[in-house]
Specification:
The chain is α/β, with parallel strands linked by helices. It has two domains: 146 residues, Cytochrome c-like domain (Cytochrome Bc1 Complex, Chain D, domain 2, Orthogonal Bundle), CATH 1.10.760.10; 76 residues, no CATH class. Helix content is 34%, strand content 16%. The strands form two sheets. A four-stranded mixed sheet has the order 3-2-1-7. Strands 4-6-5 form a three-stranded mixed sheet, with no helix packed on it. The N terminus is likely disordered. The protein binds heme C. Heme C binds next to helix 3 and helix 4.
Length: 238
């Protein structure tokens, strides 16, 4: 009996990589846009979700630099490979109940195979330079991601003057943001979001950046290097 089960499993294990190899990498790369607002392919570049660099053979919930794993994922004991990733992407909640990935899954097996074919290459050590080139090319996609509230924020350490925040005043319900090009823009207080990015893509200390948000042009994010800079920068003045 035991022997039969073992044979059964190894057949699946053997057939699974080859069937996944039928995935179409180019189609998979396009579908990765679903994931890119939350996951980068650069080592330790974490966003809403952990970096996927070096994913194959990694234990679930184990990337040291990612601090927001759910207990459910950390304790699930999964090793990421063709088979486990196929199950995860098909229905994350049934594979790991109480996980915190806000994604419903991909029902079409062919699309999962395409995505895995792409990810298998793109997550290999050393694949990152090529993929960041794709990131540049995909900056439009990144902007779309930004508009949807996630996504790639431009690197904030070298900025055009119209993105360098010099002063912020607050009066009644209005913030006025002055940038290094001398312009001042007014925002309804609910349309200006104040954020921090202490990572390597974030701004220099004391040099916050303003980044457009949303599609209507009436919203923006001001991104600081650290939370204590926020109230220091904002001057209540009419
Ligand atoms: C809206 C954000 C979001 C989207 C979209 C998203 N993920 Fe995730 N993903 C997360 C979060 C958050 C976690 C951590 C979940 C937890 O700890 O329970 C995660 C975890 C993972 C993990 C486990 C990684 C590890 O280190 O154990 C994999 C693999 C993964 N996601 C792949 C994908 C793929 C592939 C897609 C696109 C089809 C995708 N995700 C879409 C946010 C997202």
């Amino acid at each position: 009996m035991n022997k039969l089960i073992v044979i059964g499993l190894s057949t699946i294990a053997l057939s699974s990589p080859s069937s996944a190899q039928h995935g179409d990498i180019a189609r998979g790369q396009r579908d990765f846009r679903m994931c890119a607002p939350c996951h980068s392919l650069e080592a330790d570049r974490n966003m809403t979700g952990p970096s996927l660099a070096g994913l194959w053979d990694r234990k679930s919930g184990s990337l040291q630099s990612f601090e927001r794993y759910s207990d459910a994922l950390k304790s699930s004991g999964i090793i990421w490979d063709d088979r486990s990733l196929d199950a995860w992407l098909s229905d994350p909640d049934s594979m790991v109940p109480d996980n915190e990935m806000p994604f419903n899954g991909i029902k079409d097996p062919q699309r999962r195979a395409d995505l895995l074919a792409f990810l298998r290459e793109a997550t290999k050590p050393g694949a990152a330079p090529q993929m960041s080139a794709q990131g540049q090319m995909g900056d439009m996609g990144g902007m779309m991601g930004g508009m949807m509230g996630g996504g790639r924020v431009p690197k904030l350490k070298s900025l055009e003057s119209n993105m360098q925040v010099k002063a912020i005043t607050y009066c009644h319900d209005t913030y006025r943001v002055t940038t290094a090009d001398g312009k001042t823009r007014a925002f309804w207080e609910r349309n200006l979001r104040l954020k921090t990015d202490s990572g390597k893509d974030g701004p220099h200390t004391g040099a916050p950046a303003i980044v457009p948000a949303g599609m209507m042009g009436d919203r923006a994010d001001v991104i600081f290097a650290a939370p204590e800079e926020i109230s220091k920068m904002i001057e209540a003045r009419c």
